Amino acid sequence: MPGSPAPTRTPAHDRAGVSGADPAIARSLIRWFRATARDLPWRDRPLGTRRDPYRVLVSELMLQQTQASRVAERFDRFLERFPTVGDLAAADEAEVLALWSGLGYYRRARLLHGAARAIVGAHAGHFPDRAATLAGLPGVGRYTAGAVASLSFLERTPAVDANVLRVILRLEGRELSPSDPRATALCWARAGSLHEAAPRARETPSLLNEALIELGAVVCTPRSPRCGGCPIAEHCRARASGAQGRIPARKGAAVRARLYFASVLVRDGRGRLAVERRPDTGLWAGLYQAPTVERVDRMSTPAEVRRRLGLPGGRGTLSRVGGFDFQTTHRACRFEVFEASRPAGAPGGWRFLSKGAIAELGLSSPQRRILLGDS
Ligand code: SF4
Q1: Are 100 and 226 in a shared domain?
Q2: Nearest C-alpha to atom 2 of ligand 1 is from which residue?
């Protein structure tokens, strides 16, 4: 790990009008976090200790849009296979995707892989130790850069994720949507001013950022915040005015594009299932699936499925065995699942694998359900 950096100050242009309450708020948050922090696989003890930046980077990318409980199930396995940034950089993408299985949003896995390669290639294996430099790595935005810099290098810099944004908007009593640029500017500035006002102890940047993130995750939750157990309740404007439920303001309902998938379970003589790899770009790029026909306007008919996949015709050769809906951030997907007899010559690109082997592949959540019965 690089040498210990000197403490830095938050840039003046990022500062909000510092509230007179900020020193007390920062102290309360840190005291509360020391007393109540959850045990998580990526959270080292004692709290505030400089953490391995590679472990922080992996956990932060896994935690984006994925629940901590789900990450906790997979974090150790990923680190066992790729214990160092060099191991990850040297790995095949297919294996990285396979180890990411179940976490969703596979683009993050590719970006993490790219970041590891950039650290090994452009930085000679040394992690950048400043948020400004970290933010140049693939997949490392302002929040992740702040998290790694503060948790691993104790840089006095904020890290504002969706949890912190919600806490600060409520603290300030501002009914803004998270996607409103004014909300982003306000929350980064106020988080910066909290760092300015916080105790000067070496571990403060790490503790304060984690305290804010933890508060949003377990107390100041999106619905039904537990204000009675909140360490900064006396300073919270949303609580004083009863506006917690209106903050953050809701975005307009997202209009999701519809997609229709007809996936077919095809077995060979040994009971192994056919899988194919999705294209390298687009939704679930490069992941594996049961042979599938995809449309944007409507579900394919059985005749179309037969024709597109080269399946045998005739009564009883293609039968529907189920269906379900699945939503991604931007798409509403309908899956119909069929079973079919094996075609005489399996189409190019198909592989017949046991369920055990399929479980080791990179699979989207709906395909895990179709091929492995995981829900
Ligand atoms: S008092 Fe309630 S709304 Fe305000 S920060 Fe605490 S939990 Fe959130």
Answers
A1: yes
A2: 227
